[in-house]
Amino acid sequence: MAGSGGHTPLPALEPWLADRCESTPVEWLLDPDVAYLNHGSFGACPVPVFEEYQRLQRELEREPTNFLARRLTEWFWDTGGRPGLLADAQAALAAFVGARAADLVLAPNATSGLNAVIRSLRLGPKDEVLTTAHEYGGLLRTWEFVRANLVLCEPDALVDRIGPSTRAVFVSHITSPTALVLPVEEICAGAREAGVLSIVDGAHAPGQVELDLDELGADVYAGSCHKWLCAPKGTGFLWTRPEHQSWIEPVVISWGYHGEADFAERHGWLGTRDPAAYLAVPKAIEVHATFDLDACRALADDAERRLAGLGLPRIPGVPAPFMRAIELPPGDAAELWRRLYDEFRVEVPVSERDGRRILRFSIGPYNDEDDVDRLVTALRQLL
Hints:
Elements: H1 15-19, E1 35-36, H2 39-42, H3 47-62, H4 64-71, H5 85-96, E2 104-107, H6 110-120, E3 128-132, H7 137-145, E4 149-153, H8 158-161, E5 166-172, H9 184-193, E6 197-202, H10 213-216, E7 220-224, E8 236-240, H11 263-268, H12 276-279, H13 281-288, H14 293-309, E9 323-328, H15 333-344, E10 346-347, E11 350-353, E12 356-362, H16 369-382
Helix pairs in contact: 3-4, 6-7, 15-16
């Protein structure tokens, strides 16, 4: 692995990517002997962000009561004064994703935020929830848990399928298994016109595509910061329009839940936990601004072309900027995943989906041509 500099940028990039490409070397904690191509699953934390995370943890342990009861929030124990560290982090993240801070609460990840929403819905036996065949399996299990009547549609047919029994549409901004960008603006607009709730799983969006949640059109949106924003593990958010905040119950009921509490307070204090990961999000936003994102996009495109040359086509659709899903010949997905790591030290997920074997590679700011070379060589030999 090497830094992100040295790649030839593609000419046709989104303006927001080109404007923010300031190639600045950033150190990482990743094992240099591993070609780490799984940023989309768990991300990776740059050294400056991890150091800020640990600094905050040391401050917490130096005087836990002062940190948690006085400095973290302004409302806990009615301390008054400045808004507090948690509100500062919340405001920074809200600005990054184009939202009002009052409409966004921090959560451990997108799954946690969406669990609060899905489990707060009171679905009747005839209510339908429209979704696609590209959704994240963990959240499909959440819908199964609440006994939702899920109806699978193709993304471009979802709006036309909305009918009198449709209660909500649930769709990913960027799909986890197939690494595609879905037309969430059009889907949310169609749902709003039909008077149907729109819920967007944005786990892979923050840091990979530009976000303006106030303009996107969703009723509910949840994202993760530990992936493409490179924040510490356990950082994400839940955003909702003001008119939906009253019925969404927190996953844990604690001191923040009382009659006068607003959205942030009800979901903000879930008991004693280490908030350092949340508080390091502003540092992650700062470091993310130094990444050479056009180089990441160019390297992802190059890897896709090289794999296509081996007869391994990308899943059709609009690809995510830095993450691609490739269809492999039939075979044992778990065995290939194991051999890629054990024999070649290539960390890349391989899964079985609808009878197809899919490999999804991610290009992080630390990846270079050597990582792609190792993946191509491994697949040429193993397949």
